[in-house]
Amino acid sequence: MNTLTQVKHKFQDVLRRDRTFNHTLQGMHSIQGNELDISHKTVLYLEDVSVSFDGFQALNKLSLYIDDGELRCIIGPNGAGKTTMMDVITGKTRPDAGTVYFGQTMDLTQMAEHDIATAGIGRKFQKPTIFPEHSVWENLELAMKTDKGVWHTLFTVLTSEQKDRIEEVMLTIGLQALCYVKAELLSHGQKQWLEIGMLLMQDPRVLLVDEPVAGMTHQEMDRTAELLTSLAGKHSVVVVEHDMDFVRSIANQVTVLHEGSVLAEGTMDEVQNNQKVIEVYLGE
Amino acid sequence: MKFIPQKNSLSLRLIYLILSLLSASNLYAADDNLNEDVIKNTHDQLKELIPQLQVKNFKKKIILVKQLAAINDPQSIIVLQALLNSRLYYQKADKSVVLLQKKEVHKKSKQYEIFNALDNKKIGLVEKKTIKKIATNNKLRKTIRTLLAQKEITNADLNIRQAAVKEILTGNDASLLPALKQAQTVETDESQKDLLNLAIALIEVDAQDTSTRQSAIKLLGNSLYPRAKGKLDTILATNDKGEFIEQDKDVIKTAQKALKRINAKLSLFGNLETLFFGLSLGSVLLLAAIGLSITFGVMGVINMAHGELIMLGAYTTYLVQQLMPNEIGLSLIVAIPAAFIVSGLFGIAIERGIIRHLYGRPLETLLATFGISLLLQQMVRSLISAQNVPVITPSWLSGSLVFNPAFAITYNRIYIFFFALLVFAFLLLILKKTSLGLQVRAVAQNRSMATAMGIKTQWVDSLTFGLGSGVAGVAGVALSQLTNVGPNLGQAYIIDSFMVVVFGGVENLWGTLVAAMTLGITNKFLEPWAGAVMSKIIVLIFLIIFIQKRPNGLFPQKGRSSGGH
Amino acid sequence: MIINRFFPQFMHKDTGGKWLLSLLALVTIIVIIFNFLIPLLLPEMSALHMPTYMVTLLGKYLCLALLAIALDLVWGYCGILSLGHAAFFALGGYAMGMYLMRQIGDRGVYGNPELPDFMVFLNWQELPWYWIGFDSFAFTALMILLVPGLLAYVFGWMTFRSRVTGVYLSIMTQAMTYALMLAFFRNEMGLGGNNGLTDFKDILGFSLQSDGTRIIIFSLSALALALGYITSRFIVESKLGKTVVAIRDAELRTRFIGYKVEDYKLWIFVFSAMLAGVAGALYVPQVGIINPGEFSPINSIELAIWVAIGGRGTLFGAVIGALLVNYAKTYFTGALPEFWLFALGTLFIVSTLYLPKGIVGLFERIKNKNSDQNKQAENKLEEKTA
């Protein structure tokens, strides 16, 4: 019996690709739930998270808590670990140490990207990533929150509610006139909007938005600010942004990252007057 | 002609090899100078015996031959050798026995040149039909060989003595025992003495006296000649019921011990040989893959025509040999730069003509270069031949280095092993120490930054690709010495080469080296129990699974990944 | 469009496909009427028929076209350039070949009722276990789908979850088919070794030599191609098809909106392998032999060029490419054998350099120029952004 278990473990070990595939063993981890539990008001927990790439410490014991319905801005100089933090939350990068929880029960370090996405964490990339060969409509349709299993997707037909939902989001992002245009023909700003629209279609609990206003005109920026603020409350929104004016216009809570950990946290004014922050931004 | 070097003079042998490489002449010219004293009164005996050789009865011939051998006269050896080699004739007219120096008909006149068998004096030219060959059969030839060997084991020339004792070892003639013992006492050369002892032991194993047999068996246990093991196997033979045929229990025990010792040694040398074969295969893989590790590994270009660039190198060797048919030894040296230039130029042409337009589209590059490989194959078929072409192996590459009877390795494989390492070192040097290498690495790591710093990236691309292709051509020169040179030569190596590069990890020359050697050795060690084809399949499956586990190979390189999109 | 009435809704926009299927139906009907019905009913008019070898040749092309569709699904739509699709084709072919071998019964050279000739020749005493069941056609039909499907499943499962992509994947698939080729060359595989399986006599009791059987197999190939086309069209037009294209264009994005990418890749890969298996199974009775040469990596690469020439990412482009290149191959290898490899090599280069979307793309470009559709779309865009 003992050897049998050993063989079984060995087998499992072989089938694992590397540590990235720990999720295949998720049955063995005790604290794991499928339902999002936000009974403590906090939706996202990052505790003592460390990540290093070939000796470069991208995240250094980062601890961060995002409340349900909050709109949080994250700023920091280049290389502060903002994008790595998002990678860790969405499962693209596995932390070397530390815990990442979604609600009380979901251990994100043990989940695959698509599971995390399905569980309710959406992400917009720094560089707008949409499906260039698909029309705006199809882009949104693909992102829609629904059963994303293979067989369901093969036979599914859009219901009228789903169509309404797509129309609605299209209206929100102002692309209804370009409904059937191939996404690759959109302008940079329109692509940004489309990606935000796809995020909305997912109806996530947490939106991670990486530099949403890069390449946008002031007008578009204002509309984006408006949109993100309106989303807060129903969703938690985490925005990583370089543009300070934009951050000021939307944020009530700002976190400053530096060298992989939190340097300061508070309102925009508090943060701006923080001595350490001034040193980091101006001292260099 | 076999040559057994002393074990401790390997380095000396290598120096010889290099010397021979330069002079391309034959070092081992040795002639059969027989400087034995001629004793007058033996002449009469010869005169009496030689004509009798015409007798038809082979039993009588054997007796005659033995008598002839007993005569201490060089002429008896000459006659016996002539008889052995079917050069002994008699003239139909006067029944006098004659010798032929050359077997062939004298070409222009269709005549034979004959010599008197008694004194070697030239008689003259005769028509073919006037003479008749003295017939021999297997048994007679074997007798003659043994007799000659017996005479030769006391010859002054060590080479002749060695050849003789080896000849004796293949038979097992108890009548030779006194002669062997006598030779053993006067022998001064150690390895020759060992051989004589072995020959004696092989005979004494069958003696009556147990202690003689015991010591003979012990001696056999120290020998690696197949005959020694065979003899022990015979002693330990069993009948149908599994009982030993041999009655003496002590002899059985000693023989078992001796056999165990031989087997242990044989398996050690067997493993050594497998290891060497593995390294040899590894060096072939390294040669085939190393150019690819530049074009694919460093540049990220999938060149499916890589195999054909190797093939072009092999054909260049062939063409160079055609141009200098009298200098085969030198031709191979000339072929190396020639193949580098030919394949390199083809490579540059491919890069400038096609690959340049497909950067960033790896799958298209794959298909386009595959098209090139078809074109190159057909070009060779149309311009040269669809058949394999003969590439001659120069004399300094043939033969083998014999360590002992159980372990010998061929020179061409040794040369190619070191050649592969040399090419590897050369490439490493170029990439690490030259400004071209610096630029290549800069372009590989960050193309736009390299452009911004004033590096002509297009120029660097062409040169890098040319370098990788040229090295493929050089590999072709080496491969022409190991395999058939034909239009399909390249196809045999392309998958293996890619496997080696992917296994080793792209952008990593050292990885390619380790991967090639690992795969070569693994393959050869699998072969004994899985068979050649099956072990290749196993290695392929292993590689497929390995890449799943570690998509970046054994030694993943940091930074830009070339893994598609 | 009255013609739409004959096609399911998901094909209405697929003009090329509709043309193709109509043409296919027409040819099949003509062949059946002139080669089957007329000789049967009006023997005196039988001179009108097409030579049987041509029908068989056409049938062969149709099987290869089905194979091209299979590759187009994974390469054109999902971006996975499989250089091992000939392996799935050959496996389907071997499954069919095993059935046909069993059908020979005791009519082989050695007259052994149980063992195929090559096993008698190798002194085998009994049928290896994996031959069991292949005397049943139903079992064989199942295996034609299952064996390639299973191989694709195992290979894909390992590869896709490890996220091996791009050329690495291509090289891996090539290594797979190479390993299989080496394995099938071995006599110990019990599948005929070097010579493969051949000397077939009949299928389901009908002689393979008879014209009637050949016409039926041709018709079945046409039917398989049509069904394969329609099914593939359905898949491509479904949301799954869109997802697969999305994976091709932006894999990471697809993952982050909640799709388990490896499942999709695996699904399409396995489906494609099964399609290739069917193509192989129909191919074998028409050519009368299956041997390890079918696994050879060059076959898979050639297949890629059919798809590339026709136009990947359009199913009927793949069919056109397969038919054209194979017709050219038959023509040139007969008329100018030396020239064929030059032509093929040039095709590879020209199609990748100058025809990124193949013949279909070329036609579309010409069409678009005339209709100025692009300009309108651009104008619209400019209005919106202004």
Structural commentary:
Helix content of chain A is 38%, strand content 22%. With 284 residues, chain A is an alpha/beta fold. Chain A has 2 domains: 107 residues, 3-Layer(aba) Sandwich (Rossmann fold), CATH 3.40.50.300; 132 residues, Rossmann fold (3-Layer(aba) Sandwich), CATH 3.40.50.300. In chain A, the strands form 2 sheets. A 6-stranded mixed sheet of chain A has the order 6-7-8-3-9-10, with helices on both faces. Chain A has a 4-stranded antiparallel sheet with strand order 2-1-4-5, with helices on one face. Chain A starts with a helix and ends with a helix. Chain B is mainly alpha-helical and 565 residues long. Among the domains of chain B are: 97 residues, no CATH class; 201 residues, no CATH class. The longest helix of chain C has 27 residues. The radius of gyration of chain C is 22 Å and the shape is globular. The mean pLDDT of chain C is 88.
Quick summary:
Chain A has 284 residues and is of the alpha/beta class.
Total number of β-strand segments of chain C? 4
Return the CATH topology of the largest domain in chain A: Rossmann fold
Number of helices of chain A: 11
Strand order of the largest sheet of chain C: 1-4
What structural class results from the helix and strand content of chain C? mainly alpha
Order of helices and strands of chain A: HEEEHEEHEHHHHEHEHEEHH
- Mean pLDDT of chain C comes to 88
Helix content range of chain C: over 70%
Tally of structural domains of chain A: 2
> What is the number of helical segments of chain C per DSSP (H or I, 4+ residues)?
15
Give me the strand/helix succession of chain C: HHHHHHEEEHHHHEHHHHH
CATH architecture of the largest domain in chain A: 3-Layer(aba) Sandwich
Q: Summarize the biggest pleated sheet of chain C.
A: 2 strands, antiparallel
* Gap from first CA to last CA of chain A: 63 Å
